Structure formats: C-alpha cells, structure tokens
Amino acid sequence: MAEIEIPDSMKILKEWWGRLSTLSLQFMKLMGLGLRLKDPSYIANSHSFGSSQNESAIRVNFYPATVNKDLETGQVRCGEHSDYGSVTLLIQDSPGLEVMDRSTGEYGAVTAPPGGIIVNIGDVMQFWTSDTLVANKHRVLVSDDKHLQEADRVSIPFFAMPDQTTLIECLVGRSKYPPVTMHEWLKQKIDSAFKERV
Length: 198
Hints:
Number of strands: 11
Strand content: 15-25%
Largest sheet: 5 strands, antiparallel
C-alpha cells in the first residue's frame, strides 16, 4: 500500500478540532434544554476543551480496502463498545458503522446524509441522565458489499469528555449510578479494557 502524505495535516486536524468542539458544545447545550436542567449549560460547561484537565480527543481511523484480502464478511474491524465520554461526533466517508438495536440485540448500518454527522451518546451522558439517554453499543465489521470492500474507508470521531475533576452524578430524577469523577471513570474503563485483553 502506498503511503499518502497529507500536506498541513496538523493544521487541518486543529481546524476540525475547533469546529467539532464548538458543535459538540452547542449540541450539549440543546441537550440541557431538552432535559430541562436547572442550568441548561451545565453539561457543556463541564467540558473545557484544550485544557490540561480535559481528555477529549479527535482521531482519524483508516480502514484499508478488504477486497482480495484473506478476510471474511462479518469479520470484526472495530469491536463492539460504547464510548466512554459524553458524546461522540462521527464523520465517515462511507458506510461501515453499525449500531445495536437495544430491543432486539440486532445490529444495523448507520449512515448520515452527505455532509452529515453521526452523534453517539456516551457512557457519561447515560450516567448524567440515569438512562434517559443511553450509550449505544456500536461496531465496524468487514462489509459484504463488494463496492465497499474495494474502497478504503476513513472515519473521524471526536470524543467529547468532561473535565477530569467533573463529578458524574444524576442530573435528572433519581440517581441510578453512584457518583464518580471523570478521572475515576476513565481509569475504571481503561483498567477493565486491559484486563479483558490479558
């Protein structure tokens, strides 16, 4: 596979960071209004993007074409998981993401209209809302579509995480989960992920 150089890639990623962090804050303010929080900006204000207290991240995922490779349809490219933070904004250049229907346990493809962005609810938002909003399980598999197998796929997720010192506790109704700081929650998830691999 030939190497691809992207001129000004850091500049481009920083520009995407700025746009996606702004969009995620706007989205979280709308969520605060929809949830009828006493302070509708509370969730958004818990994210100081770019500060040393915030672990939010943007990532570029490259999935090379799978045609004529020793791979089977349905083979895992990115295993089932939910995202750790509050929300994830996802840009993808072609289909690939599948989301679990919680009522059936079945997976279905998710696509956005051209220029659209997919929004995933993360674990922290589920905790904040005591399951009013639920973190969806999702994955990426090798496609059975020959056209999709012949093309490389790129996805760009922006993971919005609350600041490390933020206390994650119920903001609506009764509390279903024990309070935990974002730092403690992230440590638990990372420790758990590494234990599963050992």
